[in-house]
Amino acid sequence: MRKIISFMHISLDGFVAGPNGEMDWIKVNEEIFTHAGKRISEGDTALYGRVTYQMMENYWPTAADKPNATRHDIEHARWYSNVHKVVLSKTMNDAVLPNTTIISDNLPESIHAIKQSRDGGSKEILLFGSPTATHALMQLNLIDGYWLFVNPIILGQGISLFAGIKEKTKLKLVTTRPFTCGVTELSYTVDRP
Prior knowledge:
The chain is of the alpha/beta class. It has a single domain, classed as Dihydrofolate Reductase, subunit A (3-Layer(aba) Sandwich), CATH 3.40.430. It is 30% helix and 28% strand. It is built from 5 helices and 10 strands; from the N terminus they run ββαβααββαβαββββ. It has helices spanning 30-41, 50-63, 71-82, 107-116, 131-139, and strands at 3-11, 15-17, 45-49, 84-88, 100-103, 124-128, 145-151, 159-160, 171-178, 184-190. The strands form 2 sheets. An 8-stranded mixed beta sheet has the order 5-4-3-6-1-7-10-9, sandwiched between helices. The protein has a two-stranded antiparallel ribbon with strand order 2-8. β9 (171-178) and β10 (184-190) form a beta hairpin. α1 packs parallel to α3 and α2 (50-63) crosses α3. It is globular, with a radius of gyration of 16 Å.
C-alpha cells in the first residue's frame, strides 16, 4: 500500500505558518531544493489542501517560462505539470481540472482508494504544506510519515502542525540532515502497532 508523507517546513516550536498564514520565515536555498527535489521527483502523486493547491496553480504552470527561472523552477514546473494532483476541498467539488482529482467527501474511503492504487507505481504520496488538510488526515490516522524541514526560528504563535491532536503518535526517525542555512531535515515514519 502507498504511504502518505506530510512534507512541511516547520518552526522550532512546531508552527507551519504565522498567525495570518505568513511563511516569510521559511529558509530555502539551492542545497535544500536539490536535496528535496530528488525525493519529490520520484513521486507521481501530490496531495494538497485547496489553499496550497491554488497557490501552486498560480505559480508552477508558468514558472519555467519566466526569464529568471532557476534550474529548480524549470525542473519542479516540469514535475508539477506531470504529477497527478489530489486536492482535498469542499468548495472545489465541481471543478474539472487536468490531471487533478478533487476529494470533497468520504475522506477515509477516498484516501484509502488512492493509497491502494498502483497507477503510477510510486510508493509515496507527498502531502505538500496544507495544514488544514494535514490536520484532517492526522485526525483520521491517515498520515504514514512526516518529512519536516525544521527552520531555526521560534515563532511563538501561528498555525501549529499538531493542532487538535489528542492521541499520542509514536514516530521512528528515518533520516536527519543539517543544511548550511541552519535548516534541519527530519524524516519520520509513523510507528503503527
